[in-house]
Design a protein that fits this description.
The chain is α/β, with parallel strands linked by helices. It is 38% helix and 17% strand. It has a five-stranded parallel sheet, sandwiched between helices. The two termini are 26 Å apart. The mean pLDDT is 96. The structure holds ligand CA2. Ligand CA2 binds next to loops.
């Protein structure tokens, strides 16, 4: 069976496509999910795509990931910059992690330059709007295929 990748999205990402297209691109989260599902099929992986505005739910999903998923792709939204709880869950989750952001967080306000998620992630893709999710899935598929997921 194809390895399953859990794609997690944090707060306010459900609003995508309605505002700030210059920063986040014009796609809705449903558009991004559809592109991920299409891309995953070509990469030989499966995708489960989730969004929550709740920090606790995000932590619970990360804690449960190892049972059903080979890797996590995560855009933790604003929790990226604030949440030690999300970081601790990621550090304990036991599966490889790729961080993704729609915008280039390093070109934006100073408070967006620091990411707690990066401390647990193998790598981070930012600045490519919705396409970044497909790039992240490609990176994960390659890591799983080559065993590079075990590098740490
Ligand atoms: O660039 C990213 O993907 C972010 O994770 C998006 C977060 C932001 O807090 C991070 O610094 C960078 C915000 C997502 C909220 O997106 C909205 C989209 C349209 C309207 C309102 C919010």
């Amino acid at each position: 069976m194809a390895p399953m990748i859990l794609v997690l999205n944090g707060p306010n990402l459900n609003l995508l496509g309605r505002r700030d297209p210059k920063v986040y691109g014009g796609d809705t989260l449903a558009d991004i999910e559809a592109a991920c599902v299409r891309g995953a099929a070509g990469l030989g992986v499966g995708v489960e795509f989730r969004q929550t505005n709740s920090e606790g739910r995000l932590v619970e999903w990360i804690q449960q990931a190892q049972a059903d998923f080979a890797a996590i792709v995560i855009n933790a939204g604003a929790y990226t910059h604030t949440s030690v709880a999300v970081l601790d869950a990621l550090l304990a989750c036991g599966v490889p992690i790729v961080e993704v952001h729609l915008s280039n967080i390093h070109q934006r306000e100073e408070f967006r330059h620091h990411s707690y998620v990066s401390k647990a992630a193998h790598g981070m893709i930012c600045g490519f709007a919705g396409h970044g999710y497909e790039l992240a899935l490609e990176a994960v598929a390659r890591m799983l295929e080559t065993g590079n997921a075990d590098k740490e």
